[in-house]
Specification:
This protein is an alpha+beta fold. The protein is 28% helix and 32% strand. It has six helices and 19 strands. Helix 1 packs antiparallel against helix 2 and helix 4 runs antiparallel to helix 5. The longest helix is centred in the middle third of the chain and has 18 residues.
Length: 307
């Protein structure tokens, strides 16, 4: 492990912000042909419990002829309990590997061995808590496990703050609750209908001109396949705020994002070998967390979230 920087994050270029229902999205554009051959993992990825099941690990098999990216924060549903992926992983074509995960369903340890892609991402608060503890464990123990208790505490906050009761303390109960909130689903549907712009590879989520999070994918198609999951998580995260800004000044929003990307770029983090292909970078400060994955020297995925 060595100290590394996500300095190439500043090569990303913001576009004009769009605000709906208090949620502001700022499109992000990257160099053409960036990560062109990497696809987002879907249900073609075979996910299963280990022969001797354990909470913080799963096995994945890529039976396809191309590399598959599992983004950090993706929720895998099923098995003995539903999990969230701790770090971003490029699973090589034909490979079978063990990956680090966290439980997002504290009340269940039973069921089948197989999993499906939930099509959902963890909330910002959960991702911040998870990434902080993963960074600490990478530094101290060369481990990519999270502090499971902190993840469960965050899930309990997400459920209880919305008055959502779930017998198994499953985080996806928050997402299910969203389906019954017509005002918020109208925001989700508007953003989905607007879609991803040509050559867009990432997006920043903001409240007013305060940037809350950034997520950037290998290419335009990878972002498109993750779009609904990103939008639903952004609308869920907006529950943290009582006010719902109706718009944001475009210049102020872009400047705020450029400032945030520059701060992430100049902050040193820990470099570690990827679980599959590539090299990870983990960054943590009191103000934010960030995570990136480089393959063949190219930053093909990154995220950053304000605390």
């Amino acid at each position: 492990m060595t100290t590394a920087f996500l300095n190439d994050i500043t090569a990303l270029k913001p576009g004009a912000p769009i605000t709906r229902g208090g949620v502001t999205l700022i499109p992000i554009f990257g160099p053409k042909q960036r990560g062109a051959d990497i696809k987002i993992a879907g249900d073609e990825l075979v996910v299963s419990e280990l022969d001797t099941p354990t909470v913080p690990e799963l096995q994945v098999h890529n039976p396809t002829e191309h590399d598959l990216l599992i983004p950090a924060g993706r929720i895998l549903s099923g098995g003995r309990q539903t999990r969230v992926v701790n770090v971003s992983i490029v699973v090589p074509a034909g490979a079978k590997i063990v990956i680090p995960v966290s439980c997002v369903e504290a009340g269940r340890w039973s069921g089948r061995s197989g999993f499906s892609d939930s099509g959902r991402m963890a909330s910002r608060r959960m991702r911040v808590a998870k990434q902080r503890s993963v960074k600490a464990n990478v530094d101290r123990y060369k481990s990519k496990r999270s502090a499971q208790g902190e993840v469960w505490s965050t899930i309990e906050l997400e459920l209880s703050s919305r008055g959502v009761a779930h017998s198994d303390s499953l985080f996806l109960g928050v997402d299910d609750d969203l389906n019954h909130r017509s005002d918020r689903m109208s925001v989700v549907n508007e953003f989905i209908a607007t879609g991803v712009q040509d050559e867009q590879v990432g997006v920043a989520v903001a409240h007013g001109d305060k940037v809350l999070g950034v997520e950037v994918f290998p290419n335009h198609e990878a972002l498109k396949s993750s779009w609904e999951a990103i939008i639903r998580a952004a609308v869920i995260d907006a529950d943290e705020f009582a006010e719902q800004p109706t718009s944001v000044d475009a210049e102020a929003g872009i400047k705020a994002l450029e400032k945030f990307l520059a701060e992430v770029a100049r902050t040193g983090g820990t470099e570690a070998a990827g679980c599959g292909r590539g090299t990870e970078v983990h960054v943590e400060t009191p103000q934010f967390v960030a995570h990136g994955l480089r393959v063949d020297g190219e930053l093909i995925y990154c995220n950053a979230f304000m605390s």
